[in-house]
Amino acid sequence: MKQAKRTFFELLVILSGLVMALVVILLCSDEPAAALRYFFVGPFSSAYFFGDMLNTAVPLIICGLAASVSFTASVWNLGLEGMVYFGMLTGTMAAVAMDGWSAAIAVPLMFVAAFAGGALLAGICNFLKRRFDLDVMMSSLMLANVVFYLIFMLVEGPLRDMNSDQGVTTQAVPEAFRFTNILEPSDLNTTIFLALALAAIVYFALRRSRVGYEIRMTGLNPVFARYGGVSTAAVASLAMIVSGGLSGVGGMTYVLTTSFRVRNQLCGIGWSGLSIAMISRNNPLLVVPVALFFAYLTKGAECAALFADITPDVSQIIQGAILLLVTSEKLIEFLTGGSRVSRKALKKEAAKS
Question: What is the pTM of this model?
Fold first, then answer.
């Protein structure tokens, strides 16, 4: 019964988002019929737009997984956007440095460098937590803001490609390391299979492994987990590291699905990943359809902006409204007996073990 209730609420959230789109377009557009048509149908109107929507979803899936891992352990990593951008930079610079290497060696190392970049920032947050008892939520958010300006300075300075025809960017990822396009003329490439594989891996790691069980128990009730012999501090630190590393990988896939360069502007996929994790209730399998829904909203708004008279910012308004619905449901749950729900979930997890 409870699962059916949650499923109903999730469907209601999605429906509410579409209704919000309808209302916003009716209020903002002078030609609402055309705007609505392009918003809802545009992403499916051609191979280009459909492939572009799937391509947009790739880094969103990985960032949603990154947030899900940390949130499952009740580690509130709000610095995802900074970790995305730092992983983007370390992965791209590693690829540039390995120009001429065999792709079979260089591509895995490129992703290792991206993972290491995001994990490094997460490790700094863990250090600040252990050494100064600084809350991870605050340290990750503050560190991300520092990283933004540091990377902007590097991209505009020593790492800038002066021959780039795309504005202020780094050098491009060598062509030999780029993934194969699969739905031309769109930019969709085989990184979508990487995102789906990561979703399956994270799901089985969280739901079918001992470490995943410890992460879930730490998030549900750290006191109970400690009594069961779990080092909750170590588990929380591990969840943060994995979250940061996956954020970096998400940033690298963003590079590989867009301009193949790091630009001196934020992409926003880290913030979207936080919303996706909350809406999917930290379920890695649900992250995939929720990320696709976010990509649909984004590309629908872009189609409506291209062929009608609304702005792409409409998708951000709708996503914000959906997030408010989800967080309000969590608040109501907390105020009306959320602790009882947590105890039931705890007993269920213990029975599974």
Answer: 0.90
> How far is residue 265's CA from residue 275's CA, in Å, rounded to a whole number?
20
Q: Which CATH architecture has domain 46-352?
A: Orthogonal Bundle (1.10)
Of the CA atoms within 13 Å of residue 106, those in its CB half-sphere come to 19
- Residue 42 neighbours by CB under 8 Å, 6+ apart: 49, 299, 300, 302, 303, 304, 307
- CA quadruple 107, 108, 111, 116: dihedral sign: negative
User: Which residues face 189 on adjacent strands?
Assistant: 181
SS3 content of the chain, % helix, strand, coil (to 5): 75, 0, 20
E strand segments, the chain: none
What type of residue sits at position 82? G
- pLDDT by residue for the chain (353 residues), tens only, comes to 556 666 666 677 777 777 877 888 888 888 888 888 998 899 999 999 999 999 999 999 999 999 999 999 999 999 999 999 999 999 999 999 999 999 999 999 999 999 999 999 999 999 999 999 999 999 999 999 999 999 999 999 999 999 888 889 999 999 999 999 998 899 999 999 999 999 999 999 999 999 999 999 999 999 889 988 999 999 999 999 999 999 999 999 999 999 899 998 888 899 999 989 988 889 999 999 999 999 998 898 889 888 888 777 777 777 777 777 766 665 555 555 544 445 555 555 555 55
Name every residue whose Cβ is closer than 8 Å to that of residue 21 and which is 6 or more positions away in sequence: 39, 40, 297, 300, 314, 318
